[in-house]
Amino acid sequence: MGIIIRLRSPSGTLRINVPNEDTSYSEFINLISLQLKSSDPFTLFFDQKLKNRLPDLDSDSQNITIKELNLKHGDMIFAQLPPSESTVSGAPSSSSMVYDTINKSSSAVDSKSQTSPTKKELPSQPLLDFELEKHSGSISRGKDSDFCKHGSNAMCEYCMPLEPYDPAYLSENKIKHISFHSYLRKSISNEQREAGLSSGPLPNSVLPLEELSFQAKKDCNGGHAPWPEGICTKCQPSAITLQQQEFRMTDHLEFAEAGIIEKLLTWWRETGTQRFGLMYGTFEKYDIVPLGIEAVVQAIYEPVQTNMLDGIIVEIESEAFLNEIKNVDTVAKACGLELVGIIFTDLTDDGTGQGKVEYKRHKDSYFLTGLECRLAAKFQSMYPNYSRWSQDGTFGSRLVTAIVSGNENSDIEISAWQISNTGVELENSNLVVSSSDPGFMMVRKPQSVSTEKNKNKRDLSLQYIPDILYKYKNEYNVSVLKSAKPFFPIEYLLVSLTYGVPSNPRPMFKSKSPFFTENRHLTQTPESLQSHLSKIGLGSPEVTSYQSAAQGLSDFHLLVYMTSFGILSTDLSTENSDNKSDLYLLGKIVQNGPNQSEKYFNELAESSSWLSLIAVLNSSAGNNTSSKNYANTNQQNSGLNQPHNVSRHTIDESTSSSNSQGSFGESHDMMDVEDSQIWSCRHCTYDNDISTTWCAICGLPKDD
Predict the structure, then answer these.
(1) Cβ contacts of residue 496 below 8 Å, gap of 6+?
(2) Given this model, what pLDDT does residue 639 score?
(3) Which residues, given as ranges, of the chain have pLDDT below 70?
(4) What is d(CA 250, CA 181) in angstroms, rounded to the nearest whole number?
(5) pLDDT in tens, 283-331
(6) What's residue 121's pLDDT?
């Protein structure tokens, strides 16, 4: 007569159908292997504490029968699997977390088995998080003269400290969202709260944070084919109820000085088209909000883009863009900075001639469009926030999206936003698309998505669209639960931040002669770089004043362009070696300031690669002096009407080639070369790139 032995493993509970009590131990192990669908070794135990172990399968034990092991019908044994088998899709399953929680005593399983192999390879969480974990975040209150009846050394419910997530305090101080670390303290267990956060998660405890997932699980062990051939409640994602996120990963956006924004606005004032930039800075403690975090912007990098009157085109998924940003990230890291967000303009002159702009974004229209929401979500997904309190190793993102637009007074103002974790996962799971109405997002219809178009993303070929719902108040002020299909308001995905500029500016980059901003009209060229280095006293190997030269190097755009030649060494891992890289030395010069960087400046001046760069630039400037002078004059005369994608460096090279004789009398040939690169719109006379067929200003076709 057959018997059933129950087997509990991190992947769930299985039933092993054994023919009879005389079944050999080796046959019993084979039956378990078939049920577990694994060829990897596993260990069996009689008890759930994993102390009383079953014998290993060898020549002595293979002929032992089930009866001799004292296993009877209905008994349960426990299996310990390797770490690679105890996780599903790179993250711990819910059953494994429960199983590990039951085994609170010491066991053969390392406490780190809760985390996936992927998490072990992830970077550590930022130092700022370790620092904030040391603080309780409690909000101190003074003695209440009306209600407190005790002495100065006592405390009561009216004066005891409040938790950082206290609703009354947040409402009184008009704090719309609690900070991330306040939310973390609200989510942890009582045992963890008593132990504190500075020592890390308690052993064998369930981590409080977990990334959202809105996709059907492909490796379900429910005994059915993967979606779309089959699905069950274990692998089917739950219905999504959209609601305002109660916390925010970053609480405040601050620019180190107002001049950083002014440089970005210069483009719009000159061309009337919109501009996009990447904000680089640091994340710091923000004392206005309990356990708050602020993003302090030190520089804005403007990548390659197509600018129009009413929008911007940025190929953020192209290989060229990713390589460009990778190089900029390296320079920022050398300066102690990181990408803290993105910024773009949405400005339209109101026509009054008083410097006023149109008021577009408000509660009756929209704050972010669907396309902007998806763009911000993609960037937040590219730069996740690493946390040791998350089961996945990451939780949310601190990246901020800033928009420069008009306010109710028609003045230029900045608003700061983040996309909620739900909004980011909706974009990652490919569940939403932009709507023609800028204030709404559409839910995508079920379809198969080619993985070839998503090489850098998760496999979306087995797409499942769960139910998406949201609540709103109808005309009778009654809460109504409504399906988000086909569209829903974008406000459900937004998290608002505060913004400001310090009264006492604290910029990191202090150059008094800033270099050209990248990808603009007056393009950065080797000639302009040589001229700029000569201006700040670095045009030759002999430097007369290191302080003025070091101050001139304190320019983010200059550092990025100098490293783009491939001559300077950029390996940042040479910090502890005697032969430090040029980029490391440049970063130290910027961080320490001109008065405390003589040591690093002397090392840079003696570097062979730095001397090579100076020699190459001087040689380039000497060979192109005459053509450079003429081309620069021509650029200044037509710079404001030149679209971004006309390469001035290309024009310089072309004019230099056509004027190789050094004669300035052949100006007609040089103008022909430039004219061949553009076409003038017959409607608005704007000079467009020859590769385009529509006008970047008025939007009308070339041949109309």
Answers:
(1) 176, 177, 248, 415, 416, 417
(2) 38
(3) 1, 38-40, 59, 83-122, 447-463, 544, 621-676, 698-700, 704
(4) 10
(5) 999 999 999 999 999 999 999 999 999 999 999 999 999 999 999 999 9
(6) 62
CA distances to 30, 190, 372, 374, 447 from 427, in Å: 44, 35, 12, 7, 15
pLDDT of 686 reads 79
- Domain ranges within the chain, ordered by starting residue: 3-118, 247-464+493-500, 527-623, 625-689
In single-letter form, the type of residue at position 268 comes to W
- Classify 579 in phi/psi space as left (phi over 0), alpha (psi -120 to 50) or beta: beta
CA distance 63 to 26: 7
**What tokens appear for 637 in the block?**
């005369």
Measured between alpha carbons, how far is 585 from 570 in angstroms, rounded to an integer?
Answer: 10
Per-position DSSP letters for 668-702, written without gaps between them = HHHHHHHHTTEEE-TTT--EEETT-SB-TTT--BT
What are 155-188's pLDDT values in tens digits?
Answer: 888 889 999 999 999 999 999 999 999 999 999 9
- Using an 8 Å Cβ cutoff, are 257 and 298 in contact? no
Which CA distances in Å does 579 have to 103, 336, 608?
51, 20, 11
What's the pLDDT score for residue 682?
A: 74
**Pairing between strand 178-179 and 247-248?**
parallel
**Structure-block tokens of residue 265:** 């606005």
By the 10 Å C-beta count (0-12 exposed, 13-18 middle, 19+ buried), 351 is classed as: exposed
Backbone angles phi, psi at 109, to 5 degrees: -85, 130
DSSP SS3 for 271: helix
Give 492-538 as a 3 state SS string.
Answer: HHEEEEEEECCCCCCCCCCCCCCCCCCCCCCCCCHHHHHHHHHHCCC
Task: Indicate the pTM of the whole model.
Answer: 0.72
Q: What is the CATH number of domain 3-118?
A: 3.10.20.90
Q: Is 221 left (phi over 0), alpha (psi -120 to 50) or beta?
A: alpha
Contact predicate 179/129, CB 8 Å: no
Measuring CA to CA, which residue among 258, 261, 257, 277 is closest to residue 269?
261
The residue type of 3 is: I
Q: Rounded to 5 degrees, what are φ and ψ at 339?
A: -70, 120
Token pair for residue 240? 């999504």
Query: What are the residues whose beta carbons fall under 8 Å from the beta carbon of 538, sequence distance 6 or more?
Result: 549, 552, 553, 614
Residue indicated by tokens 């969202």: 177
Helix 526-535 vs helix 608-623: crossing angle, to nearest 10: 110
Assigned superfamily of 247-464+493-500 = Cytidine Deaminase, domain 2 (3.40.140.10)
DSSP-derived secondary structure letter, 413: E
Torsion sign, CA atoms 376, 377, 379, 383:
positive
Question: What does residue 177 show for φ and ψ, rounded to 5 degrees?
Answer: -130, 140
- Radius of gyration over every alpha carbon of the chain, rounded to an integer in angstroms: 32
Q: Which long-range contacts (CB under 8 A, 24 or more apart) does 661-664 make?
A: 662/626, 664/626, 664/630
